[in-house]
Amino acid sequence: MIKRCHEDNALVRAALSRPGSGRVLVVDGEGSLRTALLGDVLASLGAGNGWAGVIIHGAVRDVARLREIDFGVAALGSNPHRSRKAGTGTTGEPVSFGGVMFTPGDTVHVDEDGVALVPREAS
Ligand SMILES: O=C([O-])CC(=O)C(=O)O
Ligand SMILES: [Mg+2]
User: Fold this and answer.
1) What is the pLDDT of residue 123?
2) For residue 58, how far is the Cα from the chain centroid?
3) What catalytic reaction does the record list (predicted)?
4) Whether residue 85 has its Cβ less than 6 Å from ligand 1
5) How much is the CA Rg of the chain, to the nearest whole Å?
6) Most exposed among 4, 37, 54, 81, judged by the fewest C-beta atoms under 10 Å?
7) Selection from 77, 93, 73 nearest residue 3 by Cα
8) Structurally, how many domains does the chain consist of?
């Protein structure tokens, strides 16, 4: 989980550089569609490190290539602009967006229609 990485994807790269063990990285980009928090390079990095995918409350880019990578991507939209690499945000805390609180250990189901969350207590 990455909280409040507004138009800054340094923490996304850092997280996807570590072993994913089949997990989904949840990223709270505070809903900004002005810069992309992930593209094909970071998606390939995550796939290579065993991440199942990402849920991004923000934008991505390189969409045509993302479709070819075995890595799930759910995002609000796309934008070709790059993000800052300053390291804004925090890692590991619960994050909340779209009226949903994501807590480490929850299960998520994602398809083309959207995201469904199964809280840890219910699974
Ligand atoms: O480098 C970035 O900031 C995002 C990107 O385009 C990629 O991951 O391919
Ligand atoms: Mg790229």
Assistant:
1) 63
2) 9
3) oxaloacetate + H(+) = pyruvate + CO2; 4-hydroxy-4-methyl-2-oxoglutarate = 2 pyruvate
4) no
5) 13
6) 81
7) 93
8) 1
Torsion on CA atoms 75, 107, 66, 40, rounded to nearest 10: 90
Picking from 119, 82, 86, 84, the residue whose alpha carbon sits closest to that of residue 104 is 119
Provide the residue type at 113 as one letter. D
Tell how far the Cα of 60 is from the centroid of ligand 2, in angstroms.
9
Range of the domain at 100: 2-122
State how far the Cα of 37 lies from the Cα of 92, in Å rounded to an integer.
17
**Dihedral pair phi/psi, residue 96, rounded to 5°:** -130, 125
ipTM reported for the complex, 2 dp: 0.97
User: Residues 31, 23, 79, CA angle at the centre, nearest 5°?
Assistant: 30
Please give the biggest Cα pair distance in the chain.
39
Q: pLDDT averaged over consecutive 10-residue blocks of the chain (123 residues)?
A: 96 98 98 98 98 98 98 98 98 93 95 91 73
CATH number of the domain where residue 98 is located: 3.50.30.40
DSSP letters of 10-49? HHHHHHHTS--TT-EEEE--TT--SSBS--HHHHHHHHHT
Residue with tokens 């065993």: 50
